[in-house]
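New to this. Please check both lines:
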Amino acid sequence: MTGADGRDAALAEIRAVIDRARLGYGGAVAVRGGSGLVDNAARFAVDARVLRVRGTEAEADRPFASLPSIVGRHFDRIGALPDPQAAALRRALDPDPAGAGPGDRLLVGLALLSLLTGLARTRPLVLLVDDAQWLDEATARALAFAARRIGSARVALVLVTRPDAPPPPPARSFPPGWPAGDRRGEAAETADIAELRAAVEREQGSPRLAGTILLDGARRAGDAALASRLLGDAVLGAGYGADREALLATASTLEATSELAAAPETGGLRAEHARWVRALAAYYSGDLAAAVPALRAGLDAAGAAGEPPAIRVTMVFAAHAIGDDAAGERLAANLVEDCRRGTSAVLLPDARQMVVLSRLVQDDHVGARRLAAEALDAVEGTGGTHRAGYLTGLLAWLAAAEGDADRVAALARSIGWATTSGNRPVEGWVTAAWALLELGRGRPHAALERLRELAEGPASHVLPATLALPDHVEAAVRAGRPDLAAPAAARFAEYAERIGQPWARAVALRCRALLAADERAGSAYAEAVDAHPPDRRPFAWARTELLYGEWLRRRKRRGEARSHLRAAADVFERLDAVPWAERARGELEATGERAPRQDLGGASGRLTSQELQVVRLAAAGASNREIAARLSLSRHTVGYHLYKAFPKLGVSSRAQLQRLDLPGVRTTRERM
């Protein structure tokens, strides 16, 4: 783009991105031109806070060389950032080249994003980068990370490169999506615009429009690496939204994009991945006959070939969707490790989210709560609405298992946008959470109403809806509506048969027992208990034990009932599933056995071990930040433990904690 026409077009683009930022629609633009473009951009932004940065050829190979110019006189604001981000940013600003390692790159991007959005709270912020072709790679990647996540902030990023700039040294690779002289030209600019527009639309609650933009950008990219990157984003977005139509459109684009078939060495999505994407679409449409074999085949082949990170994220989900928990856990752990080593670090939040899902579906409620709170703490302020929403949905389900109605309500309110934006998995987790809460409180009619809404709505085939089918059966039977239980039982029986997992077969037998006549029910319950592997999904196993124990007690077989009720109560207490533990203990007492309850001594006996540690430190005068550092937790997790502990102890403030006689507090205070 040269001459007066090119200059006018570039100025129009710059003015547009600054005008949108004023309205709260952050964005970035990369143009070619002389230094006059930057001067004009500054004049467009007279009402904004303006930061000016210039790349220099002499420092282009030094990591984070340009970062001090961006942070500049706002260094004092670093202390307000989350601790890991602040520490990584300080290391990056250290003149020692070894100050920041590869593992810090993602955190520096997060820190830069937090800093820019914080500065934009009082008035719009415009960051002008001149001679952007000479930005060092580390700073350019941090800017790219921030640019893709500023859709809801009043921030505009303007990057200007010289039209006659020489190509960068071959040893230095620029991050995808940023111009570098004439290296990739219009194709790169097309991809940049598509990715940034999609990010804005996704954060504004239009995931389907975001997907359409990405697919259109991939078709027009004319470059295998760029098309692959855009299609990877499209797969992730459609997967998060459980959007069957978007997945099918992505698969068709993969098959039709000739560059991907001709250049499989790009390391990104290839035409052959269309089969995997179509398998995901089949799962979300409820076509298990087509989906399960294809997903299993893809997972079996995954170990032999290095898959693109976007595909690997969906593979973790798929493993759990077909009940292969061991594969899901292994894939999630490997993905997190690769991201931390610097490979596709931008997907670390997605990878951590998949680890949380792995913990939850395997009924490690305590571990899932901790990891979800930490992951949510990490994505706060990054604009990752879909990630924060999914994690919040998982936390809502965990709170429901605990019987914490207030927390379920608060979490559900915080992601009310999921229903209007069509985010089906988030909607599914929240609806399943409400149903589980009502079922645990002994309100089967209310639970059934929620579950019918889930089974008959657009989220009927997402993972939480499938996992809630046994709840549907139990709620309908307990509400006196076995006619509404039978379809849910049939759906879960088909699911169990297709995936071939022993735990699923055991739960299907439990559903059959709930609907069976007396003696046939007893044999089905007994078979369900025996069929369930003791190391797989203990919450589901304990619920089978509870139902069997209840069935035996009601038939005066109290001696047989006790062992099942005892086993159920022990598991529920270990998982902090309070209403379920109380129900099991109540049934056990009805058999004539005095049900012992855990007692660690006084009021603190009602706390989990983690809550007790946090409370002791808080009572000794430690702040949330100090407690987090001492126990290697996030501040979000510390706050959550205090929120849970206060009502158990009958207090509402830290000052009241200090008046309680808690074991170990005096020793803790003396050590601090």
User: Anything to note?
Assistant: The first helix runs from residue 3 to 22. DSSP finds 35 helices and four strands in the chain.
